[in-house]
Fold this protein.
Amino acid sequence: MSIADTRARASRLRPLGRMVAVRVLGVLGVLFVLSILVFAMMYLAPGDIVKNLLGNRPTNPDVIAAVREQYRLDDPVVIQYLSWLKGFVTGDLGMSIRLQQPVADAIGDRVGITLALCLLAFVVAVISAVPLGVRSAVKAGGWVDRTGNAMSILGLSAPTFAVGLLLLYVFAYYLPIFPVYGGGDGGVDTLRHLVLPAVTLALGLGAIIVKLTRTAMLRELESDYVTFARSRGLGERLVRRIALRNAAIPIVTGASLVLTFLVGGTVLAETTYALPGLGTLLQDSVLFKDIAVVQSLTLLVAVVIAAIALIADLTYILLDPRVRRQMGAAS
Amino acid sequence: MSDIRVIGVAPVRRRRRRLPIGVAIALGVLALAVLAAAFGKLIFPDAMHQDILASTLPPGSPGHPLGTDELGRDILQMAVAGTASALVGPVIVAIGSMLLGVVMGTLAGYERGWLDTLISRWTDLLLAVPVLLAAIVVSGVMGGGYWVTVALLIVLFSPSDIRIVRAGVLEQSARPYIEAAQMLSLSRWRVMFRHILPNVTSLVVTNMMLNVAFALVAFSSLSFLGVGVAPGTADWGRQLTDGRAIMFQNPAAVFVPALLIVAVAVCVNLVGDWIGQRLSQVGEEVR
């Protein structure tokens, strides 16, 4: 049974509240399984657990005892897992062995720049890609379509860091308009530092969104209601607006695709421009085997992805009048 | 199936004799890349030889048309020698995920029932996993090395294959020839893999091409983040990463491998799209 089947059945048989609850429970189930995997990372990493958790701090029996106590290594695995999970939920993520500071603080220091980068890239991508996708679909086969298609193939084929390095070379070194690297001193300066990384990310994001929009829009424009609207003499602009509203549903559903790209792309863009964000934090922590940080970030990303996917799903169900009407009929 | 197709294809083929110019160029580039992959290491066996006394030379230096890196290695030679490593991983990943997709997709599409539910949920789950993140975390923390990365990418690339095969099998299963095969009481494996599978091959091949392009990008991204192939290996991703340090002395050190990665990925995409379009048009003629 696919999601669509579940969704269709749920919307027919159950009132809204029950259905939302089923969705949320499903997501929680997946996160639960994932949290076990992430917890197991501690054991799967090669080498002695205590040593991995200590890093290169000088060891003596007291320190080892403290670590064993903190991670409850002497308790059964289930207790260890539960106490670890409780820590995660309450915001106590342990200590980073690389930074010698609580993981929560390390993440808190860097989350702002990553959020700003993602948001900026997302806005740039949507503003440029959705109109391009619509135009491509409306004049399918025309020069806009072909340029858009070429751009989206290029955007999907060019690794984020390759684009980043090229932009960096041209716009920061050859023509010194933007800073080469770093996160700036906050405010406008940080914004200036974020322009190139955001454009870099937006190219890949935009490529996906153009493709999604074009496909969805083409399908809507070929449907009967558009032909009917045109035959009744509705203006082309109005027809396009109606079609876009319908096309928005598959576009929003494709959000998870966009999101998974964004997660990987952020790591690459931040590394390319040496931005002090979560992406570079993850990469440095992985290379240093700073497991507490890697665990926290992985689970955090999973929670964010699950939450956004859930919200996208729910808005899709709630905003589609057809689904709403079906539900009204059922309840 | 095949005799039905002949009717539709005859006029179509004549119309599509001429290769679009873009696709022709793409095929040419890919042919060159395959040649370089096969013979690159034979032509330049010393590409990775380091010279401690040497230093970075800019492009256009005598004997080094694209210059050298800080270890005196010729950029052009490294790029040619690195083709094999850059292409082998992505091709293995694409083929592996295709095999996984064919088996799981066929089972899900033909058997339906709980197996289908299980496999479909599994693909839903995998599609939500950021490939790059998973690969960094697994190969970085667990120190798996190159082949663990390959295995991981095979699993993470398989959902698209599974879905496509499943949809194709579902569509084929409803056709009369399958009913006929079932009535002859052929074994389900025979029906699945001898009768249905050949008819979804076109979809599978198209998707495999696209996966090669995505895997190429993924591998080079992993190299860039320091969890790819071992240092000292001739490989585009590796070369690009190493070249970053001398980007401003010799931009070719970064942009030659970057250009090669992008060019091959674009060409594979173009050829894949073209094959897909051709096959889907042929399919429409049949219907």
In short: Chain A has two domains: 3-97, 102-289. The interface with chain B takes residues 1-3, 30, 41, 44-46, 153-154, 156-162, 165-166, 169, 173, 256-257, 259-261, 263-265, 267-268, 271, 282-283, 286-287, 289, 291, 294, 298, 301, 305-306, 309 of chain A (CB under 8 Å). The longest strand of chain A covers residues 95-96. Chain A has 15 helices and two strands.
